[in-house]
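Structure tokens please, single chain.
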Amino acid sequence: MSQQNYRLINIDKLDPESSSNFPVSTLSPPVAPISITDVQSLAGQIRQLLRGGDAEGALRGALENVPYGGDDRSKEVHLATVVEILQSIKQSDMSPVLGRIYKSEGGTEALDVLMKYLYEGMAHGSQMSSSSGKSVSPQPTGFSQVVSRGSGEGGGAAMSVLLSWHEKLVEVAGPGSIVRVMTDRRTV
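Here you go.
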């Protein structure tokens, strides 16, 4: 009689629906590539809306045109644009803006994208304040929009704004938004 150790059998090879039997790349939806110049022109258009006083329209534009197919630099430029928009909206206007976006068509997806940007901004916040050589800027001048608000504390002011937005976003969209963001394979 043969001795076989059944704990060493790879049962995934026997299951036709196992993840080892199909390409994992099919789990992510395909995204169209986008160039840095397209992202910079979009940032300029969004900034025009912001200067015109339409902060909600600027936020919607930024959340609906996410450069999923862009390179890291494109994503950093768009992140800086989103953080600039978030910093320009007063705290008393946060909940009403989020409520209107949530009730609109595609509102849940837009708020999920905003949650992605909040987490990405929090992740980059400490790096931007500690490394002076790497600046995130949608402008060709090199001025960093993320370290704005006139305070010399680096990313501290931006982090405070991002945390305030996170609190309001969870109140409006619920904790399900956090779960959807953590499981989405598309990154901002």
